[in-house]
Design goal:
This protein is mainly beta and 127 residues long. Helices cover 3% and strands 34% of the residues. The protein has one domain (14-126): Immunoglobulin-like, CATH 2.60.40. The strands form 2 sheets. A 4-stranded antiparallel beta sheet has the order 1-6-4-3, with no helix packed on it. Strands 5-2-7 form a 3-stranded antiparallel beta sheet, with no helix packed on it. Pfam families: Fimbrial.
């Protein structure tokens, strides 16, 4: 089961994020849960919100002014910070894997080179 998960969004030239709304390529990641009760599961990510509160703020305050992290559901639609993902059914053994994507998103022009990392907490909703 995944208790701690690191997702490397890669290194990108600042030209990839020239204007507000520009994004980097989506990076897939999954959370595998074991020992779940029967039913379905959804995931809710929380963390420090960016100026666009649907997005996750970067740890570095200077970088956070122009770049944030966007989380996405398995269908690539945006998963807003604090919103529940679509549910997935737990299998007969109590296991379930939930698939997501993440990418950088420019909040404004003027993105500068630097370290762009953030921490999110995931909560499990059992239905």
């Amino acid at each position: 089961a995944d208790i701690d998960k690191t997702v490397d969004l890669g290194r990108w030239p600042t030209t990839q994020l020239l204007n507000a709304g520009d994004t980097t390529a989506l990076v897939p990641f999954s959370l595998r849960l074991e020992g779940c009760p029967p039913g379905s599961v959804a995931i809710l990510f929380t963390g420090t919100p960016a100026s666009d509160t649907n997005l996750l703020a970067l740890d570095d305050p200077a970088m956070a002014q122009t770049v944030a992290i966007e989380l996405r559901n398995s269908d690539r639609s945006r998963l807003a910070l604090g919103a529940a993902s679509p549910t997935e059914e737990v299998d007969a053994n109590g296991n379930v894997t939930l698939n997501f994507f993440a990418n950088y998103r420019a909040l404004a022009s003027g993105v500068r080179p630097g370290v762009a990392k953030a921490d999110a907490i995931f909560m499990i909703n059992y239905n």
